[in-house]
Amino acid sequence: xKNLFVVLSLLALxxxxxxxxxxxxxxxxxxxxxxGMLNPAELANFTAKYDVIIFAPSVIASNNKIGFSELIGGxxxxxxxxxxxxxxxxxxxxxxLGPGFAFSHNKWTFAFSTRANIRFDLVDVDPNIxxxxxxxxLNSLVNSTTLNNDYNQRMxxxxxxxxxxxxxxxxxDDGTHRLGAGATLKILFPGSYANFGANNFSxxxxxxxxxxxxxxxTANLNIAYSGNLGESFDQSSDYMKSLFxxxxxxxxxxxxxxxxxxxxxxxxxxxxGAAIRNLGGMTFSDxxxxxxxxxxEIPNTDSLNLNQFEDISSLExxxxxxxxxxxxxxxxxxxxxxxxxxxxxxVAYADVKIIPTIxxxxxxxxxxxxxxxxxxxxxxxxTSLTPxxxxxxxxxxxxxxxxxxSGFSAGAGFRIYGLFIGSSSILTALTNDSKQADLYLGFTxxxx
Length: 448
Description:
Layout: H1 2-14, H2 33-38, E1 50-63, H3 68-73, H4 77-81, E2 88-97, E3 100-105, E4 108-125, H5 127-134, E5 144-148, E6 152-173, E7 177-208, E8 211-226, H6 228-231, E9 249-261, E10 268-284, E11 290-298, E12 304-305, H7 315-325, E13 328-333, E14 338-341, E15 345-355, E16 358-367, E17 382-391, E18 394-397, E19 400-403, E20 407-410, E21 412-416, E22 419-423, H8 426-431, E23 436-447
Antiparallel strand pairs: 1-2, 1-3, 1-23, 2-4, 3-4, 4-6, 5-7, 6-7, 7-8, 7-9, 8-11, 8-12, 9-10, 10-14, 10-15, 11-13, 15-16, 16-17, 17-18, 17-19, 18-21, 19-20, 21-22, 22-23
């Protein structure tokens, strides 16, 4: 498994993305498709004839252990990640928008959008277990460690595509107040999936002359995989090969939007909105599909050699080693096809005009499902404040955000007409060694 963490580090640098994608750009006063991907009701404010997204990638890597300088340095990342006693949480979240277009007719706006997604997560992993499997117990200062965890530890990866059809309508506009609503129906194209969950894990890890042995252990395991991630998860290409599989799922976004108009035509004093995003899920169906629940039980008179897992590159291999050990009993063999839930979240924001050229956006994203379920794609809780400087078709913004995994981060970005580039963490990454790194860019054009 050691190879996996090297690949993840490279993934984080090559596709860098965060859980609030396009921070600053998605609440821009320009409006349009990027705003509509955050909240479909934003499309109700669309006044141009057409708006087109060409290409817009965003990627975020966040964790609670490794600083930006360590991530860039790349030395002994797996050792640093599993130091200390705090459980390890790591998220790598990539999103690619485009192509897509929107057009307006009377008080209605319609849009077509495409999006590709790549996720990898470590959720509440005990550092002692991670250190024993990945590093051979290099961080251990004792000969034995006893663990008793009453939660579910997960390692999961997912790739999928989306095609969205959106509609929004201006419901009310008296010249001062405007109210709009919108919805997006998304057809989901599951690509690849892998999940290893260990719930209620207890046991003793012994370190003897370079060997790492697990004894007197019990746990409830879930091992599930489909597509490329079932065969291998230690190459970055494994996450890229099948972003769009066959259509096999649906999801929806619903939102509302309110604007308080300014005295200057086409401007606002307040633009506020709320949305529920990613209601739904998708079913993975592939020739190598597997989703099985097991009971792990190792008596105190026997042990499992954890050194066997150091060079493992697939969950199939992990599963086979555990089965061959004789310590694994199948408790439930799920159907060949299995369903995975999207990361449903609630978002709310308000963009407020301070003076004619200065605006400030308050934003929050809160998950509506817990991340510890084995069939759940994760999402982070995020709160941010983004001051913006606006002159005609040029915007400068600086997101200040708090992420529940990586903590505080400060970023910067700009928009010139339809070109936008930014990061919600670049300032703290360079000056304060924050635990998040992200970057996005994109280009849209419109016909008025």
